[in-house]
Amino acid sequence: MTRIAIGKIINTHGLKGEVKIESWSSYDDQRYVKGQQLYLSDGQEVLPVNVATYRRHKGYPLVSFAGLQDINQIEAYKGFEVQIEDSDRPPLPEGQFYMADLIGLEVQDEEGNVLGEVIDVEPTNGAQDNLRVEREDGTTFLVPYVPAFIVDVDIEAEVIVVHVIEGLL
């Protein structure tokens, strides 16, 4: 069973167990439908939950979960990721992909030199996402996910080609 992180609980809201979520999804209205099963995880503990309520407030999803509708019950989950089953992701049109699908892909420069492997996609809350690339020696660098740097993404070949400029590496 593979799960995908779609956000992170960044705070509580009010006394009735609502949480403010930093969303990493483009499908909040589908993700937080009443009754939808989600998972809360801190990397070690995983808690299956069902959505009780959902609304938006100041650009953030506010969600409460069945059985956790009191601030004292939900406060311990601040900082936890909100996850879904990989199989719950809606299919995308041909040629499109989810950012999480980039993790594990090889990164090459335009001459075909291997630069490393994508180990994470880091959202920047409003700006572009960044690909965290790990070199063979274990060091990492960031590549902004914008057309100026991303030349090609081939999911089937598992390769991302990037345009390297001075200071990127």
Quick structural gist:
The chain has 169 residues and is mainly beta.
Order of secondary-structure elements: EEHEEEHEEEEEEE
Form type: elongated
CATH topology tier name of the largest domain: Elongation Factor Tu (Ef-tu), domain 3
Rg calculated over all Cα atoms: 18 Å
Using brief descriptors, characterize the structure shown.
169 residues, Elongation Factor Tu (Ef-tu), domain 3, SH3 type barrels, 2 domains, 5% helix
Descriptive report:
The chain is mainly beta. The protein has two domains: 3-88, Elongation Factor Tu (Ef-tu), domain 3; 99-162, PRC-barrel domain (SH3 type barrels, Roll), CATH 2.30.30. It is built from two helices and twelve strands. The chain has helices at 28-31, 71-74, and strands at residues 3-13, 18-23, 37-41, 46-57, 60-65, 81-85, 106-109, 114-122, 130-134, 140-144, 150-154, 159-162. The chain has a six-stranded antiparallel beta barrel with strand order 1-2-5-4-3-6. A six-stranded mixed sheet has the order 10-9-8-7-12-11, with no helix packed on it. The chain is elongated, with a radius of gyration of 18 Å. It starts with a strand and ends in a 7-residue tail after the last strand.
Sequence-ordered SSE layout with sheet pairings:
Blueprint: E1 3-13, E2 18-23, H1 28-31, E3 37-41, E4 46-57, E5 60-65, H2 71-74, E6 81-85, E7 106-109, E8 114-122, E9 130-134, E10 140-144, E11 150-154, E12 159-162
Parallel strand pairs: 7-12
Antiparallel strand pairs: 1-2, 1-6, 2-5, 3-4, 3-6, 4-5, 7-8, 8-9, 9-10, 11-12
